[in-house]
Amino acid sequence: MEKCKKTAKQYFAFQWHITDDCDQRCKHCYIFSENNCKKLDSMSWEQMEEVVANCEDFCEIYNRLPYFYITGGDPILHPDFWKLLALLKSKEIPFAILGNPFHLNDEVCERLHSFGCQKYQLSIDGMRETHDWFRKSGSFDVTLEKIGCLKRAGIRAVIMTTVSGTNIKEIPDIIDTVVANKADVFAFARYCPTSEEKDTGMTPMEYRELLAVCDKKFKAYEAAGCETYFNKKDHLWTLYKYETGEFTIPEDAEEGMIYGGCNCGNCHMTILPTGDVYACRRVQNSRVANVFEDRLADVWVCEMETYRDYDKFKKCSKCELKAWCRGCPAVASGARGDFYDADPQCWKEVEGYESACS
Hints:
Radius of gyration: 20 Å
Largest sheet: 10 strands, mixed
Strand content: 15-25%
């Protein structure tokens, strides 16, 4: 088994879905992808207290600090949402919110900030027509409006886009729109297929071209002093930067050490409203435990170990960038049913493409 530098990280991220309740039924939502009549699960207050205690125990055992990404559904719809934030504040546990824009206003955002909310992530999945088709009529304009509410309250406004073949050509326009509305952070991740839909609608070369276009746009905005931070969170950015010379393999890199790439199995777990614990929310078959039945500290060294076997990667294990990239195993799992299969959008060694590093 290979070593991993990520175990030295100070914070451990818990993506915590406290409720399924939501004002939208997004077409690419994991919660409703398999069954639109799904029962809406939510945690009770007593269960939420139990989750916090289990996570604190985990972090004490592994000398880490908890960081919660509170989400849903839309977490603000949970009846004990504010009570939970008060609990986290009393324990000085930092958190961010991943939610919808519909219940935000200046008063709500100021209250969020008073409880310690550091950032609030909203989604834009296309320009107006496409976004509202994905999510809800009117959602595009409301989302842009609420960026200002968050910023006035001192909360970092994060915009996330899910990229697929449906909206890939709109990403440059989304970037311009996000910058014009002064979002603090912009990032995109790829659509992860469910068991009903196996195709992301993007070829490897189409996705690489998107990265090239975005890279040029990001750099132009940065040179102009743009206040938006562009988070290149997709690990295929590492391959792109390796080919363009922006990333080089460190000469002092240790053999068998994992320095970057997917956080699954390294510094992240997901907790659902039922208490089920997933190695990654985007990997449909990655349930490893239940937070009400299992001690997370034990799960980490037992059930989670299967996601740290880096030599199992069918393509990445043979790549010189294994320690820094590995693409997105969740997209591979969604498309091909195997966490360790090749990333469907990885263009390395694709027939007809000659890398600058080959």
